[in-house]
Specification:
Blueprint (H helix, E strand, L loop, with lengths): L1 E5 L4 H11 L3 E4 L17 H16 L3 E10 L6 E2 L13 H11 L7 E12 L2 E13 L15 E3 L6 H12 L1 H14 L1
Parallel strand pairs: 1-2, 1-3
Antiparallel strand pairs: 3-4, 3-5, 5-6, 6-7
Helix pairs in contact: 4-5
C-alpha cells in the first residue's frame, strides 16, 4: 500500500480525502509524522502557499506528500481576500464572523457580487511537483443564510444554485465545492 502525507491536521479535510481515495493509499497527517512546526504560508499566491507546505514536508521528512490552500476571490475587490481569506479581518486569526463582517461591509454599496472559491492541491511524489485546482464560481449575498459549513459559506451562493454553501449542508456541498473538485483531480491522479 502506498503511503503519503497530507500536510494538514484538519480532521475534516483528512476524512474527506481518505474516503475519496479508498484503501489503495494510506494517508498520514502532519501529526502522524510528528510534524508539530507551524509551516509558513508567505507566498503571494494560493498555488505558492500549497507548494510551500508540500515542499517543507518533502524536504524535512523525505516522504511523498500533498498540501492545499484555498481562497475566496471577489471580482469587485480585485481578487481579495484571496490568500488572506482566513485572516481577512486584521487581528482576527481565523475568525469567520469577523472576516464575513469585514467583507460584507466592504461590499455594502457594490452591485458586482461575483466571486469564486479556489482550492489548489500541490503534490510532490517521486520528487516531482503537480498542481490540481478546483474552482466554484458564484456570488456574495448581502446577508448571512444557513448554519452548516464554515468560513464564508453563509454568504456564498454557487452558480446554478439558490442556496448558500451553509444552507445546502455538507453532503451536497462536498460534492460540488472547489475543494471537492481539486480533491477529485488529485485522487484520480493518485489512483491511476
Amino acid at each position: 500500500m502506498k503511503k503519503i502525507v497530507f500536510a494538514t491536521n484538519n480532521a475534516h479535510k483528512l476524512d474527506e480525502v481518505r474516503q475519496m481515495l479508498g484503501e489503495k493509499i494510506e494517508i498520514y497527517s502532519l501529526k502522524d509524522i510528528r510534524c508539530n512546526e507551524e509551516i509558513a504560508e508567505t507566498s503571494d499566491t494560493i498555488e505558492g502557499n500549497a507548494l510551500q507546505k508540500a515542499r517543507y514536508v518533502s524536504e524535512h521528512y523525505h516522504i511523498d506528500c500533498f498540501a492545499d490552500d484555498t481562497g475566496l476571490e471577489v471580482e469587485a475587490l480585485n481578487g481579495a481576500p484571496g490568500i488572506y481569506s482566513a485572516r481577512y479581518a486584521e487581528g482576527s486569526g481565523h475568525d469567520s464572523e469577523a472576516n464575513m463582517r469585514k467583507l460584507l461591509k466592504e461590499m455594502e454599496h457594490i452591485d458586482n457580487r461575483k466571486a469564486r472559491f479556489r482550492t489548489v492541491f500541490a503534490l510532490i511524489i517521486n520528487g516531482k511537483e503537480h498542481l490540481f485546482e478546483g474552482i466554484v464560481n458564484g456570488e456574495i449575498i448581502r446577508t448571512r443564510r444557513g448554519t452548516s459549513g464554515f468560513g464564508y459559506d453563509p454568504i456564498f451562493v454557487p452558480e446554478g444554485y439558490t442556496q448558500t454553501f451553509a444552507e445546502m449542508g455538507n453532503d451536497l456541498k462536498n460534492k460540488i465545492s472547489h475543494r471537492a473538485i481539486a480533491t477529485q483531480k488529485l485522487c484520480k491522479f493518485l489512483n491511476k
